[in-house]
Predict the 3D structure of the following.
Amino acid sequence: MPPPLTIRSRAHDYTVEFHPDLGAALAAVVGGERAVWLVDRRLAALQAPALAAVVPESRLLMVEASEAAKSFEALTPVFLGLLERGLKRDGQLVVVGGGVLQDIGCFVASVLFRGLRWTLVPTTLLAQADSCIGSKSSINIGPYKNQLGTFYPPHRVLLTSTVLATLPPDEIRSGMGEIIKLQLLAGEAGYRELMADLDQFHGELPILEKWVGRSLAVKQPYIETDEFDRGVRNLLNYGHTFGHAYESATHYGIPHGIGVTLGMLTATFLSVRLGLVPATHYTELKAQLAPWHHPFGATLRKAELAQVFEAIRHDKKNTGTSVNCILTRGPGRMERRPVDFERELVPAVTEFIAHELAP
Ligand SMILES: NC(=O)c1ccc[n+]([C@@H]2O[C@H](COP(=O)([O-])OP(=O)(O)OC[C@H]3O[C@@H](n4cnc5c(N)ncnc54)[C@H](O)[C@@H]3O)[C@@H](O)[C@H]2O)c1
């Protein structure tokens, strides 16, 4: 198992600990008698015995993991449900689930009683390898995704790779999108090692655990240096401007991390067009990443281009006629740059979707 981490945060430092199984992770919650548990409904069904051993039914609130559930409008029953189950200022919230449950739990913990102790047990590959550290909550309002949020890290993150055994293949590939992104940010050596492991990968949990640990180690310095995302942390958005647009234009028909994979390819294709990186880098990436986004290229090809561009325009990172994109000069060499929307971005994205995703 990877060694534990201590993450520094302006709110409070917190630990990331690895456990042999879900039972051990849940049992490691300290002060559990004053806790109320917010659990992903699907996960709760899959892990009923492990949960029942630790979590009293009267203190359990289950939530569906969906984009609708992490909307501002859907939060009232969550707040009420937690209060009705006896959550108090000196208690704690324990959140068990993927990125959706994390976003809900983090938001709730940051505002309930003006800040409540909370523990996160992430159960998807994406949440384990990426979102569980970094303090962010993102909540949808009306048609606007992730527009509300707070920075409020959990006090502890309890991880176990065994819980990933029940994850559907698309969710594994979604998490892998963020893992690939972090290794591309880290540089050539990490990326090559990851690709070598993925060539042999058939769902082995030790491989996943290794890359969860390695991914968190890459992300840690970005979020510690720039927790509030004003500078270097922006680079973690490599692939996200396009990925978010692809998710939204397909009405969330593309899982988040797979959108990121398609978005990284788009950003790299655009980087070649702008003369930042040789075409050979893009060609290699295109071949290596194909199994990790298949068959969602076809989903993207069916999207309305106008909706893709509308979503990019409304991305929160835009200014004037330009869109701030994270572009690449190769592994370990990402940079933030304004890209002219009409002249540079639209032609490149149009060509990428029309010709680069053909079966
Ligand atoms: N706050 C952040 O820093 C941050 C970062 C990245 C993504 N996100 C958000 O996270 C969300 C995506 O999260 P996600 O990819 O973890 O997906 P998710 O939370 O939507 O879960 C995906 C599916 O897997 C199920 N599931 C969860 N754990 C399981 C398990 N162990 N076995 C079987 N099924 C399981 C869920 O019920 C759901 O159906 C998006 O809303 C995205 O915006 C937040």
About this structure: The longest strand covers residues 144-151. The two ends are 39 Å apart (CA to CA).
